[in-house]
Task: structure prediction
Amino acid sequence: MPKVAVLPGDGIGIDVTREAVKVLECLDERLSLDLSIHHFDHGAQKYLDTGVTLPDEDLEVIASHDAIYLGALGDPRIPDMRHGRDILLGMRFKLDLYVNHRPVRLLHPDLCPLKDRGPDDIDMVFFRENTEGAYVGAGGIFKKGTPDEVAIQEDINTRKGVERIIRHAFEYAKANGRKRVCMADKSNALRFGHDIWKRVFDEVSGEYPDIEPSHYFVDALCMQLVLEPQEFDVVVSCNMFGDILTDLAAALQGGLGVASSGNVHPGGNALFEPVHGSAPPLAGKDQANPFAAMITAQMMLDHLGLSEAANLIEKAIRNALLEGKTTADLGGSLGTAACGDDIVSRIRAETAG
Result:
């Protein structure tokens, strides 16, 4: 019995997570998946009510599940986003979810902002190192608020951290029939922190003779992703550059409304989340696009070995896009709940009889 922990988050995270769970429950019913879905209320409202973000004892319970599904976090009533950092970054670091897995697939040609590009051109996978780099919070501010203020942000790169994410990218390519792995860094300017990326990439790539390695400086890769996206198969990079590259790549597939992600420790815990924000002005207005939340659920089902169910979600969304049955951001007229109902009805029809 696969156990799934659901934390709906804040803002539209609550709205779209509800639709993703609706789809999961439909698949559970139709395919007898025997899913056990447990809901946890950690988010902005709980923090405002109790001052509690995510205590270690609660994290232990959540981490006992086979997968964690997390909605978008963020609420203007908490300007410093303390609860969001404690929940998301807390799980990433405490559970050592070092693989940030971002698939980039174009599901319909009209979603791509590039001319003359179709689904065959936009089909790549990004792996972002998720527990090191500039996002670990190492550094400080001296003489804050004065003309002599000094701010230092340290970029942490360890041999262990760099090697395991690069090796994961090659192993993924090997297991999934991908023929090319590209690594992006800025070793020409960041001569210490990123020299290790280039050296380790060259060493590891030599162990995979059937996979073509390539290296780009991150600024050149940004340009090349727009000019020749079909060149790229698997891309791996550090925490900060991976964050930037994956948002650029998300635009190629139609925007954050169709972008999904996983945070994974291979063989250990896995957390799945749509990568759009919580969009507080849209919360509760039945306007948010739930496709990213559903595609994230698809990723989670694949991770759990439930590929038949995962494929049904993608097929239903592809057909909805073909028929224009979408929310307004993708050119349709459906509300959030109606969009969820439409996907559920498609899955029911596909599994009838």
